Amino acid sequence: MTETRAISVLIADDHPSFRLGVRVWLERFGIHVAGEIGSVASLIAFADQNTVDVLVLDVALIDGDGISALTTIRWRGAVPGVLVLTSHDDKFTARRAAEAGVAAFLPKDVEPIRIVETVVAIARGERTASPVQTTPELSGRESEVLALVAQGSSNREIADLLGISSETVKSYLQSAFAKLGVNDRTSAALLAREHKLIP
Predict the structure, then answer these.
(1) DSSP state for residue 196 in the 8-state scheme
(2) Is the pTM of this model over 0.85?
(3) How many whole angstroms separate alpha carbon 109 and alpha carbon 30?
């Protein structure tokens, strides 16, 4: 493997145990982990004062969508290469990542050595992410629920309007979140509207 000691990495993921696992593997190969964070707010604050060679980024952070956050971050130094490492292993999320300019996209369940190899490749300036022309398919009920979310309705209001329980509304939302590669109502509604999945 290429010399790794000069490579610095920031890990942004909402699960501390996962961050630790990635850190252990990177440091095993001499890669410097400059920090671990779990939120968009922390990512923005870090970038304001620091830069790294590679950002390992999850789609779902504590307070928002990691991919969307890339457009708002202003790094103090050079913009790092980005590896999106996520449980949202679907073509739509891969497309969003590629369109945001990330260098690579991997599911979280890959062999750890693949993560190390990809970080090293990104630090060398290599890219493997490419846009995938696909749009997620929502069920009719998922589209109805998201359309009402976009109008500002609460889960209880949606349940009353559609004649279903709040738990069922939550279930439809969770399913839609997974398909869209997001983890909150606002991001889901915005993406669904952007891709003309809701009126």
Answers:
(1) T
(2) no
(3) 22
> According to the 3-state scheme, what is the secondary structure of 157-189?
HHHHHHCCCHHHHHHHHHHHHHHHCCCCHHHHH
**CA–CA separation, 24 vs 53, rounded Å?**
18
Side-chain half-sphere exposure of 167, counting CA atoms within 13 A: 0
> 56 φ, ψ to 5°?
-95, 115
Determine the average pLDDT of the residues in 83-107: 80
Predicted pLDDT of residue 137: 78
Give the C-alpha distances (Å, rounded to integers) separating 172 from 60, 94, 149, 169.
Answer: 18, 22, 12, 5
If you compute the radius of gyration of the chain from its CA atoms, what whole number of angstroms results? 18
Answer whether residue 196 shows pLDDT above 60: yes
Q: Please answer whether residues 67 and 84 qualify as being in contact, where contact means their C-beta atoms are separated by less than 8 angstroms.
A: yes
Judged by average pLDDT, the poorest of 48-62, 83-97, 173-187 is 83-97
Say what the pLDDT of residue 194 is.
Answer: 77
Distances (CA, A) of 32 to 2, 86, 99, 182: 14, 21, 28, 29
Find residue 145's DSSP bridge partners.
none
What would the DSSP string read from start to end of 125-150? T--------------HHHHHHHHHHH
